[in-house]
């Protein structure tokens, strides 16, 4: 569009491209110059977070992430994957500490199961990064669902075991991050998922 406007200006079809919004071809035709406004990259956070299941979590997390305000949509996905990986790693470390600190066989089994779930989530996050790099957005969205399920499985293990989960917040966070990954994958795919 910019090249068209410059070409028309160079041909003398309008005198001031910053002021004129119409020009004439002959005596009867008038064509309006439509200015396309490209959203700024900081709007990408709003575009994503408005579609997220937890917009507040999304906005506060991405809004405070270094580089997110100027990132492209694909860049936001990279940032989200990195944040999710850091969160999953921290949660798995906490699970391992809780496992090492208990002698209760029921809790040991629950923490062991959650450790397996978070190891699976970490593997899926590596797959997700590969899918993003290869622009395989449908696969990326499905992988995000799997990552979310790992947190859900961990949490439901505690519920089934009749024990209050000490990592409910982290499991919910994993699901929230996974939702953001899925939303961005959907946007990157052109909304065709």
UniProtKB/TrEMBL annotation:
Keywords: Disulfide bond, Signal. The keyword Plastid does not apply. It holds the Pfam family PMEI. GO terms for molecular function: pectinesterase inhibitor activity. SUPFAM superfamilies: Plant invertase/pectin methylesterase inhibitor. Residues 40-184 form the Pectinesterase inhibitor domain. InterPro entries: Invertase/methylesterase_inhib (IPR035513), PCW_Enzyme_Inhibitor (IPR052421), Pectinesterase_inhib_dom (IPR006501), PMEI_plant (IPR034086). SMART domains: PMEI. Belongs to the PMEI family. PANTHER family: PECTINESTERASE INHIBITOR 5-RELATED (PTHR36710:SF18), PECTINESTERASE INHIBITOR-LIKE (PTHR36710). This is Pectinesterase inhibitor domain-containing protein. It comes from Anisodus acutangulus.
């Amino acid at each position: 569009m910019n090249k068209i406007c410059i070409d028309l200006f160079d041909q003398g079809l309008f005198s001031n491209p910053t002021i004129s919004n119409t020009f004439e071809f002959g005596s009867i035709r008038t064509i309006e110059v439509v200015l396309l406004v490209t959203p700024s990259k900081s709007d990408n956070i709003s575009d994503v977070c408005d579609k997220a299941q937890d917009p507040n979590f999304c906005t506060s997390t991405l809004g405070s992430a270094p580089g997110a305000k100027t990132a492209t949509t694909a860049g936001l996905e990279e940032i989200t994957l990195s944040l999710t990986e850091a969160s999953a790693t921290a949660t798995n470390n906490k699970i391992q500490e809780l496992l090492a600190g208990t002698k209760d066989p029921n809790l040991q089994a629950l923490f062991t199961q959650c450790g397996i779930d978070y190891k699976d989530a970490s593997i899926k996050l590596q797959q997700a990064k590969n899918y993003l790099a290869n622009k395989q957005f449908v696969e990326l969205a499905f992988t995000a669902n799997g990552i979310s399920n790992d947190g859900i499985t961990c949490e439901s293990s505690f519920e089934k075991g009749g024990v209050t989960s000490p990592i409910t917040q982290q499991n919910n966070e994993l699901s929230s991050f996974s939702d953001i990954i899925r939303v961005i994958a959907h946007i990157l795919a052109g909304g065709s998922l």
